[in-house]
Design brief:
about 210 residues, alpha+beta, five-stranded antiparallel sheet, about 20% strand, elongated
Length: about 210
Amino acid sequence: MLSETVAYAEVDLSNGKIQSSGGLWKDYVAEGEREALNYMKVFNRHIDELVLEEDQVGCYDVLEQEKMVYNYNRGTATVNYQLRRRMARGSYHWMELTVHVFQEQVTENMYALLYLKDIDGQKRRQQEQERAANTDPLTNVLNRRIFEQYTSHYVLEEAKKGKCVHFLYWILIILNRLTIPRDIHMEIKYCVLWWIPFMKASAVPII
């Protein structure tokens, strides 16, 4: 596993210190010792600096000490989290952070092994496959199955908020029953879904 990682670290959960680190995290031990910081403060500093903002909360969560111990005590020793990290040239790569907790039998001290794996190529291939599966090859817009999933989800979410979107929903149902060219059919549906957020933003009632 180490041969596949771009960074690794071992943390003593009893005192919060980083015992060893390497790869992209090679300076974390010295940083913690120099500034008397526990592992969370060291990692959070670099998460704030390098991880895409929308992925930061998930990083904080999987690295939180109490959460590690809680998961371990409930039988989950290993947790994985996927994130986007900025690299040296400024581009973001998909990474998978693995947290594995274990406990020494004699001392009963708990430790965490942290690994960071670069999965950018694999993730982008997966996203491209999902995009191809969800897109009509003729029109390059969402295919019927995924479009209806998104639309149904949106209607249900709006209904929970007390919003009425029945009118547009019925339009989509009627469109499904009409015999019209496929490309026109999909374009009309795409425009209807595109129109909904603008009506909502401009406070136009959808009834």
